């Protein structure tokens, strides 16, 4: 198996090594494939990646050449830094332990350090798990784990193909889905966080996407008196999560 280390992140390269690792059940953060790659082996690999919900993307040959010194054959795969857990298993496990779990759903967080800082606050606040999308989110790499002070190694994290499907599951399980947004009518103090809750945090630039926002059942904003329009997403997450802690301790 051809494995190398780049900036504390391990990766495999080559068509056969990556395909074999996929079939062995190895966990991947993402797989990069050369644009224009063709052939039966390539099509088989793409099918197996899709079946296992492993994120992949097509990139120029130059990017792969910059990553790998050897013969990558148009395939480079980054190994996951954490062990993801199945989403439904994570939710049902939490519900078996307590009546009203709290989860954090991250919709398009793109900065790895923000992701790590959010995970650190979530673990400190006793959050039962994180939900991240398979595509369109920052990679949980060594930087994210380091920024989280190791929290990402301790808090259950599920990676899902579609956040909307996850939110439907939460709704069917009688969770309230709280959209963290400065545009929400209710301030966070008016939201009952003692219920089973999934809090949705949006991306740094665009906030919560419209398809995800449409499935939220409650809105919560952080009251602010300064002239700056919003908080950094990791700071906002910490503020909201410790309001959850305050309510549940009272």
Notes on the protein architecture:
There is one protein chain. This protein is α/β, with parallel strands linked by helices. It folds into two domains: 3-79, 60s Ribosomal Protein L30, Chain: A (2-Layer Sandwich), CATH 3.30.1330.30; 87-249, Alpha/beta knot (3-Layer(aba) Sandwich), CATH 3.40.1280. Helices cover 36% and strands 22% of the residues. Helix 2 (40-51) links the parallel strand 3 (28-34) and strand 4.
Q: What is the 3D form?
A: elongated
Specify the number of helices.
9
Instruction: Indicate the low-confidence ranges by residue numbers.
Output: none
CATH architecture of the largest domain: 3-Layer(aba) Sandwich
In percent, how helical is the residue content?
Answer: 25-40%
> Going by CATH, what is the homologous superfamily of the largest domain?
SPOUT methyltransferase, trefoil knot domain
User: How many β-strands, per DSSP?
Assistant: 11
Approximately how much beta-strand content do the residues carry? 15-25%
Structural class by helix and strand composition: alpha/beta
**CATH secondary-structure class of the largest domain:** Alpha Beta
Largest sheet data:
6 strands, parallel
What is the first-to-last residue Cα distance? 54 Å
Radius of gyration: 19 Å
Strand order of the largest sheet: 8-7-6-10-9-11
Overall pLDDT level? 92
- At the fold tier of CATH, the topology name of the largest domain is Alpha/beta knot
Quickly count the domains.
Answer: 2
